[in-house]
Amino acid sequence: MRLTKWFLTGTLAIAATIQLCFGLPSAQAETGGKPLPYNVGQWLPSDQQVLEDWRADLIRKTDALPEGAPLLPVIQEFKELIENDPELYMLFTQMFEQVPRKPPFLTDPTGMPQIRNYRHMLVLMNHILTQAPEFNKTGLVGFPINAILDWPMGTPAGASAFLNDKVNRQLKKILNQWAVFLASPDSRHVLTDDPEKGWFGRDAQEAMPTFVEDFHCDPDQPHYGFASWDDFFTRTFRDGRRPVAEPDNDAVIANACESAPYRIATDVQLRDQFWIKAQPYSLFHMMDGDPLVDQFVGGTIYQAFLSALSYHRWHSPVSGRIVKTRLIDGSYYAESLAQGFDPAGPNESQGYITQVAARALIFIEADNPDIGLMAVMFVGMAEVSSNEITVYEGQHVQKGDQLGMFHFGGSTHCLIFRPEVNLEFDLHGQTPGLHSENIPLRARIAVVTDSQGE
Length: 454
Prior knowledge:
single chain, alpha+beta, 15% strand, globular
């Protein structure tokens, strides 16, 4: 799928990752004045100064390297792509020139630009590919590349560049290379008991007090027995920690991810203007034109998002047969065009990215005929776009069985139902939105009634 500049001209697009700018509502404002240490999902800090200090420290480390130090091959390829393509050379030059030269945009504590140009950007990305995210209770930076690109993404040139097919193919190669590091033993340098930065230290234990009881691990082993950062992030629950809601009742739909409800939409359309402020769902684009898409027109979508500190595997919401699976390539740093310099990106663009981001799509023919064919879509967000499907077409799964996983974190997902399906949602007393809280994996989230409403 090619998302070209046909709707980008003159638009300030793609979100920043900081919670304060332009007087837009912040997490602090939405929580009655109480500051939050993280943005939604805890992938990025809501405190602008924390994020600026993180970037400034990264710049100090890279600036201390010998001048002219070689880039990793995959970053060198990106440099050559930018410099050899006239359109990309123009866009990657302009995106830094178009960032406003005044606070709070792209300045370090001394007021100097933090990321100066695309060459500087490449050096910083080069450093990140051999690092794993450290724990930090005042502001986890779980999306380090996203943190580098926050303001350039929000310019007209950035909007065009990060929806370019060639750019996204190269970004996929870069993120795949980072994945190799994060799946290696070297990535365990942050899986320590350092009180502030280690994932098993004092501060992390305060943030995840039931970690040992919840997850398979061995505190007596180095790194709690985890083989890599990815092994840690795709950890599994201990038996009995997340029981399946009414396993023998096919009318009860179980939560597919450890996730917080974001939106419920009804009467969804085949094609809709997903780039506008309301970010309506556009089924044809979500499913990348799959032949099964017409069956869901007029139906219902439930969307929920995952947390950086949470569980990152996917599970079947129903018992049934796997009809089809698909991995769909997409963008990595594209966010809702209507948000401008979105202060909470990519979180406030969750509806939008279901149409354009890298995602996994699984169709299930439920055993319950009142559900019939349904779809589950798992959407990568920024760096978290390595979607792995672990079921095969024709396989029968029980409600609660594993379907796949996000590597290196989590993102957002959708359950998609046909219009014939009558649903009563159980969101555990919550209203869907950016500040809802996790509903446990495999817990009841909806009940299906038959066509007579019984």
